[in-house]
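hey can u run this one w/ protoporphyrin IX containing FE bound, need the structure tokens asap thx
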Amino acid sequence: MTTVIDAVRLPDPYPYYATLVAERPLAFDAVLGAWVACDAAAVRAVLTADCLRVRPAVEPVPGGIVGTPAGEVFGDLVRMTDGPLQQHLKSVVVDALGHLDPAHTAGLAAERTRECLAAGGQPPYEELMFAVPARVVAALCGLDRGLDAEAARLTGDFVQCIPASAGPEQYRAASRAAARLRELLGPGIEKGEDGTGLLAELVRAARRAAWPRTAALLANAVGFLSQTFDATAGLIGNSLLALARGAQAPTRAAAEALVREVARHDAPVQNTRRFAAGALRHGGAEIAPGEQVLVVLAAANRDPAANPDPHAFRPGRPDPAVFTFGAAAHRCPGESLAVTVAAAVLTELLAAGADLARLPAEPAYRPLANARIPVL
Ligand code: HEM
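ok here u go:
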């Protein structure tokens, strides 16, 4: 029997999601031992409920990394915490990312893409999907040539501690990576407002918001890299597949519209989780304290109540409802950055004459529980 976790890597999970939206919009799944929220109304209700948290109350940081550098970073991430302190720090993160110049970001992404393609031959798709976005964010954080590539590799190690399936080996790798990433990014934070780039913006935003703790700024700088990694790889990969299937992106603006529609239609982040600290009633369902909810963002994107003709791939749709970047207190502050980078990578690839028709028609997907990333 398919579960919403298996669905992430199906060739086409969308008919299954459509059945859930129609028949089980918010229902308890005994196999998963969790509630599953699928339609737009349930997903909105869950993401906006104060009593639903991003971590279980009994384990704010995964046991395997408590007391390690990875645990210290994890415990300070806005993504992994809730409450007034999180909202205060989140405002700093949003402010800092809001100061990025999209043209500069696109330029960096185009340059890194051209470097990747310089060797000629078949494009190195995995490198374009994972390494290019991570290197762009590292460069925005002031890491120079060489260090940006190291930061990209370390980010791959750090994100291994996030899935529930992580074990001792992943925890050790993540902790080594977190320690080194803090060493790499620390000087940029210490330079304070005199520095340049995203880290200086973070320090300036912290001063404006009277945020006092530098360690949390450094942790969230590591978070910029880790939040970029899988999600942007999936966005680029799924956009490449859309192009291979005949979608067009003759200009940078068309590439951005395509990427935005891919984010809705074939979401790189298919689901997220919540843990009930209090009871939530929605429709006929009652989620009790201690229970878990799987929030199927990719299903809500295709709810006909949220988007007319939801299964049609239509770049430039007027006012689409897109759940891929979350909602409410934990809404993703990196959406524009991700779209800019992905569109720049596609534009450079197409300009280089890459033959995307040679991509597999039915690729395998990485065995991940929430990110949909094709193996190309
Ligand atoms: C395609 C790319 C991306 C997707 C699909 C994506 C999706 C998401 C989602 C769904 C969440 C909320 C998770 C939840 O509520 O449980 C989130 C949070 C977050 N994202 Fe992204 N993201 C992407 C790229 C980025 C980038 C490039 C950055 C920044 C460098 C970023 C920074 C963050 C941060 C800091 C949070 C935590 C926000 C909070 O919890 O308050 N993301 N992202």
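DSSP finds 14 helices and seven strands in the chain. anyway lmk if its weird
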